[in-house]
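User: Some background: our group keeps a shared notebook of sequences we're curious about, and every so often someone picks one and asks for a predicted structure to add to the entry. Today it's my turn. The entry only has the sequence so far, pasted here. Could you supply the structure so I can complete it?
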Amino acid sequence: MKAARNIFSITVSQFLSVVLLIVVFGIVARNISVEEFGLFNYWLAIVGILSKIIDFGFNPIILRECSKDNECRESISSIFIFRLAVFIILILLTNLFLYFLNFEFITILLVNLLFINLIVSSKETNFRDLLQVFFKKDLRMHLPSLFTIIDAVLMLLLMIGLLFVENKFYFFIIVYVAASLPGFLGILVYVIKDYNFTFYFDFTKIKWYLKESLPLYGFVVVSFLFLQLDILFVDYFYGKEAVGFYSIAVRLTRPFLIVPSAIVMTVVPIFVKKIKKNISIQSELATILKSLIIISFSASVLFTFKSTFFITLIFGDGYSTASLATSILFFSLVFNFINFFLLDMLTIHNKQKFNIFYILIVSLSFSLFAFLSIPIYYIDGAALSRIIALMIGTSFLFFVLSKLHYRLWLNMGRIIPWILIVTTIGYLTKEWNIFIYIPLNLTILLAALFTLGVYNKDELSFIKSQLIKK
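Assistant: Of course. Here's the predicted structure to add to the notebook entry:
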């Protein structure tokens, strides 16, 4: 039950958090201008890129090592302090840059608040996610998951104040950061109390982790740059208003990465132990890949045929322009899910040097297609460029892992008929009432899974064993 409970707590908490945050940004989008929404997301992307300077690619390595050795307090503490020192230097240099280039006060305030957000937010990997390694290695993510929900609820309650304040944009960016502070403090207090965490620094450990994570460091920086490239390209060609529209597409699709994230957090410790004992994970790997394809495609189809309805319901009629781009990004989740998981497979095998090749390939592919398509197809061109780049990245990862003797090419003989049935029913019912559309399509896609035998007996047995595992 431990693995199942871990996946359940992560997925449910993240799902609830995503739903609440969608409501939050629905309120925000209706109370600030498209340009202000674009400004926020533009600087969120820039600060996010800068944050990867202090990441150093430590997190996957520390999770791998802690899964082998339960005693890792000193390593986590040393990394926390090292990152904090670099963080302080980075924020000082950034403020000097903004000051000498005469940026407006609102931009300087926004950037500094977003820097603080790097420390306290559950969505950032630098500090809070590092502390959560204690819970990840023990498959005890229910407590951090609870704090994630508390963050989202608090943000929603505070954001209602937008309806009553005069300067809505200032209020929004302050609340966006402040809502995560109680959750961060809760995690910190808990690891100090339950795991005897203390602030300790050992530079010897930092040197070892730097050596191990160096290939991942470049990957982490470039991969986050890849995540933000579409925002930067759209801003370059069309400005902040277009960024505001495109950000809607990103905000509706990117949260779905909680699914592969929840699976990775759960299976990495299990896979590490099996590989250490020379136990094959081939069948489990194939089952997980199949599940990722089914989950991502189901979400894509359900959204696509009702894309305009969902966008206008949440954000208002003014954002309907983002409908097609959002649908394309939903289908890109199929490749995003696969790649997210396979990259962690490389880390498990200590082959993280290939991660940097992967991200360079997808980034260069995206840049090429973006320069060609965005000027012609507006924000839809950015979404199209992303899905093409991710497809190329998936092919590369399949090739690399095949060299590690993994058979990743799934038997699509039953998956393709399932895809055709799900797509056809979605198209035929697209004009139906939403309260009929969703339950009907969910029922049919699940029924088709079992009727067509998409999962064989061994795969169902593996899934069942993980769900009831003590």
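Suggested note for the entry: The mean pLDDT is 83. Residues 2-414+454-467 form one domain.
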